[in-house]
Amino acid sequence: MDVHLRELRYFVAVAEELHFTRAAERLFVSQPALSKQIRALERQLGFSLLQRTPRGVALTSEGEALLPTAQKLLSLWGEGLESARYANSAMLVIGLQTAVGRNLQQNALQLFKSRMPYCNVLMRLIAWDDPSAGLTNGSSDVAFIWLPAPDGLATRVLYREPRYVALPVTHPLAERTEISLAELADEAFIALPAAAGALRNFWLGLDVRREVRIAGEATSAEETFEMIASGLGVVLLAEGNAKLYERPDVVFRPVPDIPSAELAVAWSPSDRRPVVKAFLECLQAAARPEGEQDQELPT
């Protein structure tokens, strides 16, 4: 038995609309032609899928059983067609502001390249004054960002990590094993650019306090750690980043009395391209995300 996609598409349209006229308009065919195709499908299957009612159409028990499978087959076919169209030209631009580490990029990209070998991947370093890492202006397709994220983005938390403070090795608190935020009340902090908005405030600890003294702004990790090593200020950062940026003239100590930082992957909720969906699924497999705030992947 060979059932064609067109016949399934006609059945799904009538089943979803529960009205032959509306389904015919949706499919841009005449109602008699649609009715004829449905009858032909029913003859081929050997059972009825639909029954007419005074108000329109109702599904038979067989029709109700077949509908989810038919919808899934049509969806998979659509995704496959779109993937084929992009086979020679697809590109995924990944935005990031600092080194991600944590084996995220390597593991996720290995999975992604095995799944979509035709897709070219570009990793773009975005300035710290853009907390969306290129998503807001469209220069990135997906991005690794720290929360809080700008409005309008979908996010999925990948890691939750304690916040640390980075101090010059000569600092009086450098010998401590951990440091409370209250002990940092008089310290000058190095800030992200003002354009970073809520993210700047988070890394200044303003999510749990009202005031902070700012020593200056930094636009890169290199600038930040040179300022710290020179004794110009201190900075909060995630535990994983403390391990990434180890150097002999700077020490990193946990600040246990403040909420953890959240590293997330972000994307535009309106971007339904297969390459974006595939990369997000590969990240999910590589990082095993968790948390109530995680959002559904695009479908």
Automatic annotation (TrEMBL):
Residue intervals of the HTH lysR-type domain: 1-60
Gene3D superfamilies linked to this entry: Periplasmic binding protein-like II, Winged helix-like DNA-binding domain superfamily/Winged helix DNA-binding domain
Pfam family, one: HTH_1
SUPFAM superfamilies: Periplasmic binding protein-like II, Winged helix' DNA-binding domain
Cross-referenced InterPro entries: LysR_HTH_N (IPR000847), LysR_subst-bd (IPR005119), WH-like_DNA-bd_sf (IPR036388), WH_DNA-bd_sf (IPR036390)
Record keywords, A-Z: DNA-binding, Transcription, Transcription regulation
GO terms for MF: DNA binding; DNA-binding transcription factor activity
Annotated Gene Ontology cellular component terms: protein-DNA complex
Entries under PROSITE patterns matching the protein: HTH_LYSR
Source domain of life: Bacteria
Family classification: Belongs to the LysR transcriptional regulatory family.
Protein name per the record: LysR family transcriptional regulator
